[in-house]
Amino acid sequence: MKLNQSVTTLTGIGAQTASRLHKLGIYTLQDLLFHLPLRYEDRTRIYPINSLVSGTTALVCGTVEFIDILPRGRKSLICQINDGTGALSLKFFHFSANQHNSLKPGTLISCFGEVRYGYAGLEIVHPDYQIITDPNAYTTETKLTPVYPLTEGLSQNTLRKAVKQALSLCQQEPGLLTDWLPAELLKNASYPSLADAIHTLHAPDETLSLTDLHNSKHPALKRLALEELLAHHLSLCLAKSLAKIWQAPRLSADTATTTAFLNALPFQLTNAQQRVIQDIVADCHQAQPMMRLVQGDVGSGKTIVSAYAALLALASGYQVAVMAPTELLAEQHKRNFSVWFQGVDTQVVYLTGQLKGNARKDALQRLADGTAGIIIGTHALFQEAVHFHRLGLIIIDEQHRFGVHQRLALREKGQHGDSRPHQLVMTATPIPRTLAMLQYADLDISIIDELPPGRKPIVTSVIPAERRSEVIDRINSWVAKRRQVYWVCTLIEESEALQCEAAEKTAELLVQALPDVRVALIHGRMKNADKDAVMQAFKNHQLDLLVATTVIEVGVDVPNAGLMIIENPERLGLSQLHQLRGRVGRGADDSYCLLMYQGPLSDTARQRLGILRDSNDGFVIAEKDLELRGPGDVMGTRQTGAIHFKIADLERDAELLDSIPPIGAQLLASNPAAAHALCARWLGIATDYAEV
Ligand code: ADP
Ligand code: MG
Q1: Which amino acid residue places its CA nearest to atom 17 of ligand 1?
Q2: What are the tens digits of pLDDT across the range 549-578?
Q3: Is the CB of 270 under 6 A from ligand 1?
Q4: Separation of alpha carbons 510 and 110, rounded Å
Q5: CA–CA distances in Å: residue 623 to residues 75, 538, 626, 638
Q6: Which of 270, 273, 295, 557 to mutate to test ligand 1, by most ligand atoms within 8 A of the CB atom?
Q7: 20 to 30 A Cα–Cα from 491, which one of 7, 160, 380, 549?
Q8: 575: Cα within 13 Å, side-chain hemisphere
């Protein structure tokens, strides 16, 4: 008997019910046990009818006095019961002839539902009822009744019965629900054992507080949430240690090569950049794969740091793949890398879906035979049949745009025998420390905490949309100074088509309002070649004003563009706004960002925009954002591949987060088998220890 056996082994669960359960993600007995109720109903006590209060939910017992079908208005079945203290109407809008016949006057029934004032006094609409044939044998429930999340075609009753069976199996075989949390921890936090927690949550004693259960404050639930969060953290810790069993090529470059490379740059590396490069040099020198995250605020110069890593690979005879989240950014990396590697004997290949026919064949050929040392592209890079000659390093830019699991899956790419490429991932989006353990615990982290010299802070103002004409004037005088402008249209619309349409309209309006300004539009649905042409023209200052959707959020680098207008900033997350704003302030000149909101603003929205106005520091902004919005939102909107929890809720369980890393470390040290088992339980990850 195992908890990973199929739900079909339970009585009453056939293929059809099983397929409905699958829709809820329930395949095994264990899935069933971890499918927790949404709420509970108290059917442990019978309420006298004269004690009922409108708005409460109650169990009532009474004898049918009369039953009738009312044709008035919507056809309904009315049944009045009396328990000696008073009368109550039961009302059904959907009913069968059978139902009508079975509720004859004199029949004793129990019914449960929400009591309301109706046409003729207190009534319950569509009560859950039961005919009592033998009053002596009738008992009320001894436990609170669970109400589960359902799916079409599945009834509460079916689910309740299935869970009951699974629970009683666990009671017969107490070893089934192994408790992997340390006993010490359970004791200190007064948490129940796993088996107790599961039993309590599915079938709480009537004495338990419904309020506690509904507010999810109960220790049984906290314990499960803790266990789930811990499992996610542990899976990353294990990924980190498992990565160490792989070999990786040692990458290094001689001083002549690195000096020549650095001397050719138009700037000197900052101290922070040099420090991070030292971390990378040390990692790449190891025979195990590097797995390093470089975190640095927008504009801190992460790209050149990654290029240095690429140099190490090239100098050691290995190839490098650079992955960016958008074509626009990939395109820009191609330009930068092409310039930086001019003095190095290699080719830079840019691979997009657009590349067709012989050009594509040729690019793939050059990768396969090793003529091309660097390949740059979007994630399509890894979805295609790209064969590398000798891939030694994978660089992932703006990693927050990719999900945790996407990143982990990438590790297997470029695997060669028992060797894997080194990995360097970069992000401008600082993740507060408490959340990092759920996202980055598998990575070593280096931080670039310094901007290149001479950058002036961006001056940000928050202004209402009514002042649009002032903004237009400001653009005119800015352009007269030979400087360039971004105008960013945000739209919460899911559809990219709508976003682009809105941007098109704005561009038209701006062309009219600004006859002397050279305006162009860029959005995600344009052909790559067109996007490219616009971007290039903007870079060459053949354009003054670029109207854009949030496609320009990452990477775009045009130092002469020092004024940005963001329309409806209240619709975006703070970190995203900060990232967008990072497109300006890239040169030595003054730069400005106007957050042009659509009033009225809520208090929180006002506060949030205020944070952005007052700070240019991505870390500060992320922390404040976390305070205001809570961890669930921050993580959810930041990541396309956001983590989905079964039970834990980052908002509700925020107080648990800090305790996870130390518990994880202790468990890994004292009982690694438990760590593996927890991952298997919560993430379905099979490890060698899963069967322990
Ligand atoms: P991000 O960290 O946001 O990816 P980039 O790598 O795009 O930043 O760098 C932003 C700009 O700063 C680029 O124009 C880049 O060439 C320039 N840059 C990078 N490092 C330095 C430096 N040490 N001194 C001056 N400019 C630098
Ligand atoms: Mg960048």
Answers
A1: 301
A2: 887 766 678 889 999 999 999 888 888 888
A3: yes
A4: 70
A5: 58, 34, 5, 14
A6: 557
A7: 380
A8: 28
Strand partners, 350: 376
Domains along the sequence of the chain with CATH:
7-40+147-215 (no CATH), 45-140 (2.40.50.140), 216-455+654-692 (3.40.50.300), 459-615 (3.40.50.300)
Q: How far is CA 490 from CA 10, 33, 596, 648, in A?
A: 52, 43, 11, 32
pLDDT at 148 over 70: yes
Please tell me the distance between residue 520's alpha carbon and the centre of ligand 2 in angstroms.
23
Segment 201-234, tens digit of pLDDT? 999 988 887 777 777 778 999 999 999 999 999 9
Judge if the beta carbon of residue 267 lies within 6 A of ligand 1.
Answer: yes
Confidence of residue 640 (pLDDT cuts 50, 70, 90): very low
Q: 428 in ligand 1 pocket by Cβ < 6 Å?
A: yes
- The answer to whether 394 touches 382, Cβ cutoff 8 Å, is no
Whether 312 has a pLDDT exceeding 90, the answer reads yes
Distance from residue 325's CA to the centre of ligand 2 (Å)? 11
Nearest to 348 by CA among 358, 339, 360: 339
User: What tokens were used for 309?
Assistant: 């890593």
Phi, psi at residue 452, to the nearest 5°?
Answer: -55, 150
Which of 458, 494, 465, 499 has its CA nearest to residue 621?
458
Q: Tokens in use for 397?
A: 């830019």
CB 654 within 8 A of CB 630: yes
User: Helix (H, G, I), strand (E, B), or coil: what is residue 374?
Assistant: strand
* Distance of CA 237 from the midpoint of ligand 1 (Å): 32
Ligand 1 close to Cβ of residue 427 (< 6 A): no
| 336 or 490, higher pLDDT | 336
Q: Smallest Cα–Cα separation from 70: which of 60, 62, 80, 61?
A: 80
Q: Give the number of whichever ligand sits closest to the CA of residue 297.
A: 1
Phi, psi of 53 (to 5 degrees): -120, 135
- Crossing angle (nearest 10°) for helices 631-638 and 574-581: 50
Closest Cα to residue 558, out of 542, 541, 580, 578?
541
How many other β-carbons are positioned within 10 Å of the β-carbon of residue 515? Answer: 8
With contact defined as beta carbons under 8 Å apart, do 278 and 312 qualify?
Answer: no
Looking only at the bridges linking them, the beta strands covering 319-323 and 391-396 are parallel
In the reported structure, the alpha carbon of residue 435 is separated from the centroid of ligand 1 by a whole-number distance in angstroms of: 27
Q: What is the pLDDT of residue 663?
A: 95
Q: How far is the CA of 293 from the centre of ligand 1 (A)?
A: 17
Task: State the pLDDT at residue 536.
Answer: 86
Residue-level pLDDT at 52 = 93
At 344, phi and psi to the nearest 5? Answer: -105, 140
- Exposure string (b/e) for 423-451, b if CB count within 10 Å is 16 or more? bbbbbbbbbbebbbbbbbbbbebbbbbeb
Q: Ligand 2 centroid to 351 CA: how many Å?
A: 19
Q: Identify any residues that bridge with 124 across adjacent strands, giving them in sequence order.
A: 90, 115
Distance, in Å, from the CA atom of 448 to the CA atom of 274, rounded to the nearest integer, reads 9
